[in-house]
Every structure is written in structure tokens, then in C-alpha cells.
Amino acid sequence: MKATHWRRDRIVKLVLMKMGKRFGYSRGKRSDCVQVVVALVLTPEGFPVAYEVYAGNTRDTATLEEFLDRIEKQYGKSRRTWLMDRGIPTERTLEKMRSRGIDYLVGTPKGHLTHVEKPLLEQPWIQARESVRVKILQQESEFYVYVESHDRVAK
Fold first, then answer.
1. What are the residue ranges of CATH 3.30.420 in the chain?
2. Is the pTM of this model over 0.85?
3. For the domain bounded by 1-107, which CATH number is listed?
């Protein structure tokens, strides 16, 4: 799930607002753009399977459990890996996901980084791709991954 925004002219903004899209909180400081929350399910090859578009003023955390249940009901129980922005799941939601055997990849909340930063930085680098290297730290059943992309740094 990801929050995003569109830059459009005034008429398109009005049409989108009539459809339920709202001027929500923009982490990119774009209060002039219509904000929407998009949930997208892809195959391992990257083809879209399902999606949901929520109003921009929808709390990301409020939609996640509902979306997980709907996808499971519609497509059955399958081994999926859910990728989310760090602001979407609460710790309570992640605990529910773990208890259901749901795999996920989510950015570590900044407040929690202080607990894992030192041991993570002590790990050796692993070359994942030509311009990408990672450090991996396992703590109990969770893995923390620190990624460095030379292409991203050069951007």
C-alpha cells in the first residue's frame, strides 16, 4: 500500500473529488494535489492482480486489515509477501499478520531504528547486485535489512 498524489488541473481535481478522492496529508508537502491511497497486488512477475483506491484522507492503517482479508477471501490463502510503507501498519497489525503466517516487508519505524542500528551496522556487506549491497540482521523471527544502492545515492 502506498499513498500518492496527482497533479492535475482544476476540473480534473473537482471530478476526482466527486469520486471520493480527497486532499489528504501529503508527506511530499503537496497540499495542492489530490491525494489517494493505492493498494496494489502484483504477481511475482510484476503483473497486477488486484487493486483498491481509497480517498486521500483515509488513514493507511485503517485500510490494511480490510484489504488483507478481501484479497485472501477473493484469491484464497496463498503465500504472499506484502510490501508496505513504514507508516501503514501498526505493531498490533504486524502482530496479527505474524499470527496468521503472513509474510511482509516494511520499513522499520524511525523510533525503532535505534534498537537495531548498532548490531545491524556491525554485519558484513553482502553484494546483492552489481550496484546494490545489503546488511542483514536476524533477531528472533524478524530480519532487518539495510540496503545501499550506488545508483540511488548518485541520483
1. 1-107
2. no
3. 3.30.420
